[in-house]
Specification:
43% helix; 11 helices; single chain; alpha/beta; Rossmann fold; 277 residues
Length: 277
Amino acid sequence: MPTAQVNGTDIFYQRTGTGEPIVLIPGLGTTHAFFNGALPVLAASHEVIGLDLRGVGQSAKPRQTYSMELWADDIAALLDHLGVGRAHILGSSLGGCVALAFADRYPGKTASLVLAATFSEIDRMLELNYRVRIALIERVGMTQMLADFAVTALFGRSFYETERGRAAAANTLAMIQQNDQDMYIEHLRAVLRFGQCEPGQNRAEPFTTRLAAMTMPALVMVGDEDVLTVPKFSRIMAAALPRSELVVQEGCGHVTLVEQPEASARRIVEFLSRHPF
């Protein structure tokens, strides 16, 4: 499998399809495989660049402080390594925060943004979810108890009631449980730092204030059953981004590209077809 040495570390990636490139950035603790269900539709019209973020999957896992900006710099260096000057940038959940950091730092490399079930700021309820998750891991580790807790936040009720939903949930949670406990906690803390929630940050100016400068087209997607990054976060981003479109997916929870992979991918391809570069 291909690995690129960028920014002093090894980043796993894969390239599929032909056409304008789109980078897929997975969410917290998940790998490039998170997008497998959407990949055939996306790769039919675009070159798809999937990757494992630093600290996850087949990429290197250095012990260090992690941030959305660090991950964004890795992706920019990976695109340089691949000879890709500009790309559509798609991120899910934590990956969406990385996508926002990428667009903020590298607007010239960002043809468009697709932000799935993500956020540009954190309220106290979302902060509580991440802090409880850290405390739970510190007590019981990457166990079935953590997986059961994650189910309640990641998957929509409609989807989880189906046999396919429970199978997809099991696959996603198995991916998460493969993470190193300390590394996963560090990545949770990276989310809290992004939301200006950690000690010393004192809820400073939210990242939302930077969105007005992001003039590339943006598609904001969220499930109406998302109880983690509830639709209000997507509405905040859609209102702040100058060229945004908001899609609320019915009967869908937090992991929109797992629960409704083909439908989500078709929406994305239709959006990209209207915003070529």
